[in-house]
Amino acid sequence: MDTAFDPWSPAFVADPYPAYAELRAAGRVHWFAASGQYLVPHHADVSALLRDRRLGRTYLHRFGHEEFGRTPPPPEHEPFHVLNGHGLLDLEGPDHTRIRRLVSKAFTPRTVERLKPTVERLAAELVDAFVADGGGDLLARVAEPLPVAVIAEMLGIPAGDRHLLRPWSAAICGMFELRPDEETARRAVTASAEFSGYLRELIAARRKAPGDDLVSALVAAHDGGDRLSEQEMVSTCVLLLNAGHEATVNTTANGWWTLLRHPEQLAALRSGEVALSTAVEELLRYDTPLQMFERWVLDDIEIGEVTVPRGSEVALLFGSAHRDPARFPDPDRLDLGRADNPHLAFGAGIHYCLGAPLARMELTASFGELLRRAPALRLAREPQWQGGYVIRGLKELVVTT
Q1: 231: number of CA atoms within 13 Å, CB side?
Q2: Which among 289, 311, 336, 363 is least buried, having the fewest CB atoms inside 10 angstroms?
Q3: Percent of the residues in the chain that have a pLDDT greater than 70, as a whole number
Q4: What string of H, E and C letters represents the secondary structure of 345-400?
Q5: Can you give the residue ranges of every domain in the chain?
Q6: pLDDT at residue 2, as a whole number
């Protein structure tokens, strides 16, 4: 179909929501030849397919590449695919169940709750320094450093090495965009190899001298005789960094950009008329950082009148699902007090985000500190969007306090 859906267009990335409305009006599923995917724009379908075991993040637990009608990745990309392929997000079947069970023994609700004073202290320090300087780039000064510092603290990464994490993560996450070019792949492969090497050394050190950190807990995690392999530990740590900060960084910056364009809603939040925890959920829905989540079709499925055959890839459009009027009354309106808010920002089903409670804690801490300490926060200049569509965020958000 002819559509305004164009994930490589800066104008579309800046405001994809009118194109999503067209897609929803035109049907439940659409073949998009440019990416070779079936686009799924409605909330009910996206939510159901996230839970449907006929779809998978990988197909390799059931099929070889050729058998599934797919071309194997080039051998030179192997460091990236080994790293990505052993992480929870891209596993299915018994491997996913086993690894999630073991990781959950290390990454417990108590582990997250224990981090609360650290999260609140880091948020306060970052915001204090930001306000003292009269503002600046909120993305670089507050949104990025907080989740990176929290994950680094959690993993037990020495302070002197923490500057390495964000560049590694950004390079690896470039591969999750649609049709990444060879330079993006090269950067991702290099980062995968360097980050993996760094973590193997850290794991070896924790084996000899365990500490009170998540890497030590992953080394110790066992269920009967079952333990994580070294590669599974490395992939888990990388996933925690990538998933654990990309969403939080972009929700913080996108969220403040949204609030600054809705002064009456921001005033309601500042006055306490709206609970911050409820507002955070609405910001996750309204301009979600992860716009698309892809799945492989392992067995033929029906979506409406359309048969989507095995071997296809579906693109679940979270950004569209979150603006679906069939599920959210007046979905294009920001309503920080929205009580019934089943957004999908953290996924659903077996791949539901393990770090969702930590992300919510970080977002509540940073938004809360900025609301308290910067009551006159205002935009200094109009922001621009980065080029990425799948992970969608601003280049910067320059404000004065």
Answers
A1: 10
A2: 311
A3: 99
A4: CCCCHHHCCCCHHHHHHHHHHHHHHHHHHCCCCEECCCCCECCCCCECCECCCEEE
A5: 10-25+32-400
A6: 56
Predicted local distance difference test score (pLDDT) of residue 1: 53
Q: What pTM did the predictor assign?
A: 0.93
- Find tokens 């929870």 and name the residue: 88
Q: What would the two tokens of residue 32 be?
A: 């998009």
Q: How far is CA 281 from CA 130, 220, 272, 360, in A?
A: 25, 34, 16, 9
Residue 170 contacts by C-beta under 8 Å, 6 or more apart in sequence?
none
- Other Cβ atoms within 10 Å of 37 Cβ, number: 19
Least confident of 149-163, 189-203, 265-279: 149-163
Residue 137 near residue 397 (C-beta atoms within 8 A): yes
C-alpha 17/C-alpha 261 separation (Å) is: 16
Residue 111: predicted pLDDT: 84
Report the chain's mean pLDDT, rounded to a whole number: 94
Fold classification of 10-25+32-400 (topology level): Cytochrome p450 (1.10.630)
